[in-house]
Amino acid sequence: MSPRTLARLAVGALALAAGLAPVVTPAPAHAGQVGVTIGITGAGRVEVVEGSIEDGGGTACDRTSNLDHRVTLTCARIRNEEPFEAWVWLRPSFFGVPSGWEFVEWQGCDETRSNSSGTRDCAVHSGAFSTVDKYPVAVFRDVDPPEITGFTPTQVVNQQGGFRFAFSARGATSIHCRLDNGGWEACTSPRVLVLPEGAHLFAVRAEDASGNLSHSWSLQVHSVDTAFTATPAKVTNSRSADFAFASQGGNAFDCTLDGYQFTCDSGEGHFSGLADGPHTLTVAGRNGTWVDPVPAHYEWTVDATAPETTLTGGPAEGSTTTDATATFTLDGPGAADFSCTIDGALTPCDRGQVRLERLAPGKHVFEAAGRDAAGNRDQTPARRTWTVQAADTTAPDTTLTGGPADGSITTSPGATFAIGTTEPGSRTTCTLDGVNLPCAAGPLSLTGLAPGTHVLTVTSTDAAGNTDPTAAARTWTVPVPAASLKRKGSTLSVRVHDARRLALVVSSGKKPGKVKVYAGKRLVKTLSVKRSTPTQVVDVTTFAAPWSGKVRIVAVTSRRAVRVEGVAAPTR
Questions:
Q1: Are residues 328 and 267 in the same domain?
Q2: 76 contacts 24 by C-beta, under 8 angstroms
Q3: Is residue 134 located within the same domain as residue 23?
Q4: Looking at 478, 509, 542, which one is the last position of a domain?
Q5: Predicted TM-score (pTM) above 0.70
Q6: Predicted confidence band of residue 488 (pLDDT cuts 50, 70, 90)
């Protein structure tokens, strides 16, 4: 029976004793009043099981969403008011509480009692005719720690020291990882690490919202790296090969030679009888199930076959020549370099052309042997023997006869010369005005020559290769065609370039005719041209330096025609 009911019965009893009819009146305001602020630690629920709650206040406090039992949350203040003394009874409830939680205790209660659910109720109350505030706390605790449910380490393919750690957990809000002696740090699955060579301990644990930790799980992995410590040369002429290899993180080895697998736990490999060609040795260190994901790899080539040296070109074997030079073509498939001798003395040589010069008269022997990159040397060198006779060192003398005289002016656009040499059979070389001109010993006819100065050169080279050091040369000038000057004042103009001399090719009638010749504005000469049959070449002037400009020829006599057949301006 509540204290409020007891107070009302007491008032009724007094009224009956006095012979009065019972009168029920409302309780005086603030007779007895208790204000309650309920606190819940962790995920829990509290219900009001006794005591009337005023002002429409709630009869339950639910904090089942608080999954951290280190945190206490409160609900809104409620109150109970009674005429004499106010009481409120509270009971812990598991309605909506997650599994794995249990009620632990009450804090801040005035008194507690057992209940049928196996927990205890909490009571708070006011004093008689007084007002108080109470702060009871129901303590719930998460007693189900998280659990690591899967933990699998694997190696990352083709990554040196790479490991992948996969894990999962139940009931966890976070997962922590630790490597070797390092500290715990938050991590997620999978955790990929690149670890230095050697043994490593990786541990993982889970934590829930209340800070409960799972048992930590740990596994040891081995980071294995393999290295060669002794190898043969990359290219060798030995059919045997010796290897040594090591691994700090491994204690055994797996080997593969040219695709053939075998164990090689001694850390050494000895091979013999290897065929010519490329070979590959792969070595992977291991420690239990942990292996080197990037094995040591070595490639080398065995070449125990010497190259075959060849000589082409040059003097034929056993021949005799007057040529003091010899040019051979040297080759040898697979050869990296060559060793050559001429008459037993070393001489520089390489693949391709080898030229020997200034060979003395007599017998000569040239030998060449190729050597490949593996050091194999041709044991049967290519050989050539020949004899050099004393060489002809006298150059032929070239002659050039006929044709215009040297330095002359000719009225013809053609010329015929005779080419001669003191050594019959010599080869002749000609140029006309600096351009090569086909020619041979004997007559040489030139036609259609343009006006101007022409230079013909001829040289000859004998069978021994001796060339005339002083070419035969001839220089002459073909004049520019002109016209008749029939009356006084008639003018003929011709432009010349780099002239060193100036001459006219002229003819006249029965009576002499007279002309004036100007170089630019300067009168250089006045000529009286007498009758001339055939035409004649008349020198006008010479220039101290090459002169370019307009030449004017002016007739100064009347009815005495002067025919200017051409104007010659030699440039040499």
A1: no
A2: no
A3: yes
A4: 478
A5: no
A6: confident
